[in-house]
Design a protein that fits this description.
Layout: H1 12-39, H2 47-101, H3 105-113
Length: 115
């Protein structure tokens, strides 16, 4: 007779919730990055000082956009991890259902009362 396996103690729903929040932040950061990068285009500064400010704004915008991409990637990893937890728990559930079905009614009752 096989033995019952414990489920993974991770909350896949909470993992997905965090992933969603991270994605929202990534979107906001990308928007801010675009706005900052574009802000230099509407400036009326001329000459070296204006060029430096425009270059700096463009660089900051790129950094913000890159950070947003990193957050999006992290959110994707969280979503994949949540899917993996669900898949592993489904396999464990299937295994445990098989183990329980192979037991006599009395054994099954004892096991279920003590788990």
């Amino acid at each position: 007779m096989g033995e019952l396996l414990p489920y993974l103690p991770y909350d896949s729903g909470a993992m997905r919730s965090v992933a969603s929040a991270v994605k929202n932040q990534a979107t906001r950061l990308a928007t801010v990055g675009s706005e900052v990068a574009g802000a230099g285009g509407s400036m009326t500064f001329e000459g070296p000082a204006g060029d430096r400010i425009r270059d700096e704004l463009a660089a900051v915008g790129r950094h913000a956009s890159k950070a947003g991409e990193g957050l999006t990637a992290a959110a994707g990893q969280l979503e994949r991890a949540a899917d993996d937890v669900d898949a592993q728990n489904a396999q464990i559930r299937q295994h445990n259902d098989k183990v329980l079905s192979d037991m006599s009614a009395f054994e099954r009752k004892l096991v279920l009362e003590n788990t």
